[in-house]
Amino acid sequence: MAKMKLFGFLSSPPVRAVRLGLEALSLEYDFVYTNPLNGDTRTEAFLAMNPLHAVPVLKVSSLFKILLRINVKKSLKTSSR
Predict the structure, then answer these.
(1) Dihedrals φ, ψ of 67, to 5°?
(2) What's the CA gap between 14 and 55, in Å, rounded?
(3) Fold annotation for 4-79
(4) Is the overall model pTM greater than 0.90, yes or no?
(5) Per-domain residue ranges for the chain?
């Protein structure tokens, strides 16, 4: 499975929260330094990922999205019992 990419600014509290979550779950990811103060979130490529031009953005593979959806559905079934 391809590594996830976390786009963010190190001093952003939401970015730090996502990084902590990924590390707590021992998930591998690449960090892509994206500084909204320098206009990094206003590029065409970034706006294609997040039209709100905000960080964090976590780019994942299609396989990861499928596995996440299966896990969520499984969790919903077990919590409704």
Answers:
(1) -65, -40
(2) 8
(3) Glutaredoxin (3.40.30)
(4) no
(5) 4-79
